[in-house]
Structures are given as C-alpha cells and as structure tokens.
Amino acid sequence: MMKKVLATLVASIAIATTSMADINIQWTAGAGFISDVGGTALLQGGGSVLAQLIFTASGVIGTANDDAGVNYIGTGNDNEYLSSFVMSVAGGTVSSDYGDFSRGPDLYAGFSSPGFVYARIFQSVTPTAGSWYYNSPLIAVTTYDPLNPSSDPLQLNRDLVNGDGVYASAPNNFQVVPEPTTMALLGLGGLLLAIRRRKV
Fold first, then answer.
1. What is the sign, positive or negative, of the torsion defined by CA atoms of 38, 39, 44, 50?
2. How many structural domains compose the chain?
C-alpha cells in the first residue's frame, strides 16, 4: 500500500511540475560574436550583445527598428517579440544563466498559433540606427501547449551571415530546452516505475 501511495505522489508531482514547466533558452556562442568589420570577438573583448527571440506567423523575418520602445521590432510585419537577454560573458557561454533568459508567459503568448521563431543578435546592447545585427534561420513551431511541453529542443545553428550582420567566430547554438526540474522529476518517476516492475 505504501508503495502505491509513494508512486501516486511522485506521479502527481511530475504531472503538476510538467503542467507548470517553463521554456528556457540556452545560448552558447563558441569563441564569441564578431561583427563584419572584424576585430576582437565582442564577448571576449569584454563587450556585450543583445540577443532576442522573435516569433513570426508568416515565416518572414522583418527588419529591425532602432526604437527601443518597440523592442527593436520593425513595423509593417507580424514579427512578435518574445524575450531578450544580454550576453556579456567572456568566451560567449552563458549556459549557466539560461534560466534567466525568458519567463513562461512571455513565451507562451508567441506560441498560441503555429509559426516560426528566430533569434536576432545585436552588436550593441542598446542598438541605434546603423548597428549591426544577425538574424538566425527560421525554425518552424506548431501550436505550443503549456500543459504538454515538448522534450525535443528547437535548434538554431549557423556560423555566419552573408556579410550582413553579427555572426559567430565559432558555431553558435540556440536551444529551447525544458525546465531542468521537470526533467529530473520525470526521470525519477520513470526510475521508480522501472524498479517497481522489476520487483513484481
């Protein structure tokens, strides 16, 4: 009886945690971003870049706007700002900070319908007219259900961008990953079920 109660408790915690699971972004940039004009990699040189996650229903990447009031999203398109993060870690790896990048409500709103997501990285934390920026390739996403988050990460990989923007001096990676606690509890629940089956 105690085993059944324990199994039910673990399953309930796993289900509850999954239903509240956040979606977080993990950013890595290899040796750090550099601009087309050359020079020291921005992050290695002690600089910072502004990285954004953007949603578009039509699959068309819009141009940037130098107005911070609209999160640098250009007018006349359906691009929707989801969240942003300032990268300023030497070497370009901020995986330890990925949980701070985006919060659930910001991201859920953009996935209320099928469409595409992409990353935009500005050379400056406060872009102005003429600032360099990089748009990643588009990644298709289906309708996002916060009660049933996917365990498969969305990946955006690219080394450079046709002489127009900010690119990485080593492969860069943008991943949407499930909140770590959710995966840990799901793994614990799976282990418990496996042990229970073996004993029976």
1. negative
2. 2
